[in-house]
Structures are given as C-alpha cells and as structure tokens.
Design brief:
Elements (H helix, E strand, L loop, with lengths): L24 H23 L10 H6 L6 H22 L12 H11 L2 H14 L4 E7 L5 E7 L8 E7 L6 H4 L3 H8 L5 H17 L4
Antiparallel strand pairs: 1-2, 1-3
Bound molecules: manganese (II) ion.
The site of manganese (II) ion has 7 residues, from helix 1.
C-alpha cells in the first residue's frame, strides 16, 4: 500500500452493500467514495506545492504536524487525520454474516478493564454519545498497556497511544438511515466490528510495548 504523496483512496475490503442492514449501502458508498476521497484529494492538493514533504508517510504528517509550515498545519492535520481515521474505521468493520466473536487476548483485556463485555459496550456507547458535534470514540492501548475508551473531535487522531478500534460519529456516518438516532447506530454497529482485526491491533500494541522501552 502506498503511504505517501500522492495519497490514494484505499478500497474497502467488502462491497458497499456488505454492512447492511446495520449501515446502508448509500451511506457506505458516500462515506467512502465522497467523504474519504475528499480528504485524500484535499491532502494531495495542499502538499502539491511542498515537494519536501512528498516522502513523508501519513503517520509522519500526523505526528510531526508542528514541523510543517504554519500555513498548512491545520489543513494537513484535518485531512491526514481524515484519511487515517477513515481507513481504520472502514477496516475494522466487516459484514455481519462473517462476524467473528471476540475471543482471546483482547476479550480477556476488555473484561479485565471494564469488568464485563456488557459494561464495555455500555461505556463505549456513552462515550460515543457524548462526542459533541463531529468526532470519534476509540478503544486504545496506552503506554502502560491499559485499554481505555477515549474520544476525539473533528479529524483529530489520539497521539502516543495505540489504536484498537474506533467508531465514526460524524453525522455523515449514520444520518441517512438513522437520522438523529446516534444511539441506535452505535448499538447496531456492534454487529459489524471485525474483532479479528481489532485483536490484531491490540496484539501489535502489546508486543511493541513488551519489546520497546518507551519514555
Ligand atoms: Mn466519516
């Protein structure tokens, strides 16, 4: 996968209709092909005049945002964040019929951190409901290997933590089908989480933290 300028729209690992009935075809299509594409196009447009950043990865553009010229910092932050967040979102979902159950290390860690799966789902829903305006709710691993639920505004990316999964609660992610019923969208979304990929993200984080000294 190409991870530097010019950035490309990464395809979905399923069809636009694959998340029905939890997310409707039209929403997935617009979300991927219009909203995400717009972030890709915007970022390329912003960087077009700055060849010295054409070797920077998406992650580097996000992490080292403050090293960029001040005039493009906000644009790069919003659009690089938009690409990162959406790629993660689209890739930790899968068709409900293929859903794999939460098992293994991640299940154990969630129960340890939130007492039960049910409590995790409730806490995550509450966090996602509390995002004021546009943003995301995340399950992350912090540098002490603790699982935490955090939220972010706009296209901000939580930094210095490891991302396990996230839900997009921008209205464009659910409004066509759910209108103002964000709670219903969140609860239905639980049916299409790709737990295998989420657990992979978790395992990568823990392995990294077990083998790397972080200050
Ligand atoms: Mn979105």
């Amino acid at each position: 996968m190409k991870d530097k300028y010019p950035f490309e729209l990464i395809g979905l690992p399923y069809q636009y209709s694959a998340l029905e009935p939890y997310i409707d075809t039209e929403t997935v299509k617009l979300h991927h092909n219009k909203h995400l594409k717009k972030y890709v196009d915007n970022l390329n447009e912003i960087l077009a005049d700055y060849p010295i950043y054409h070797t920077w990865s998406l992650e580097k553009l996000i992490l080292n945002n403050s090293a960029l010229p001040p005039t493009i910092q906000i644009g790069v932050k919003n659009n690089a964040g938009g690409i990162y967040n959406h790629n993660l979102y689209f890739h930790i979902m899968k068709p409900a019929m293929q859903q794999n159950n939460l098992t293994g290390n991640l299940k154990e860690a969630i129960i340890k951190s939130f007492d039960s799966l049910e409590n995790f789902y409730t806490s995550f829903e509450n966090a996602a409901l509390k995002v004021f305006g546009s943003g995301y709710a995340w399950l992350i691993v912090d540098k002490d290997k603790e699982l935490k639920i955090v939220t972010s505004a706009n296209q901000d990316v939580p930094l210095n933590v490891f991302h396990v999964l996230l839900i997009d609660v921008w209205e464009h992610a659910y409004y066509l089908k759910y209108k103002n019923r964000r709670d219903e969208y969140i609860i239905n979304w639980y049916n299409i989480i790709d737990w295998d990929k989420s657990e992979k993200n978790y395992d990568i984080a823990i392995n990294y933290l077990n083998t790397t000294k972080i200050n």
